[in-house]
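Appendix B. One record, verbatim.
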Amino acid sequence: MISSILFFVVCIKTVKKEEEQKAEEKQLKILEAYIKNLEQLNEKTSAFRHDYKNILSGLSGFLKRRQNRRNDRLSVRNHTCNRKDQ
């Protein structure tokens, strides 16, 4: 009788341990999927940041050229006006 009880207790502990291991494996798979998703988001964010910096750099260059052209036109106008005044 005692051996049957001991066998039953050992079986219960074994089943419980197997269930805990399965639960840990399931959590590990979920965590791995989560980490993979975070890595993909990080790659996309890095690519976006790179593209965004390029866009800002292009806009900055465009605005500087536009300002330089405006300054050149004003300089020519001022130079022309100063010649007329003399």
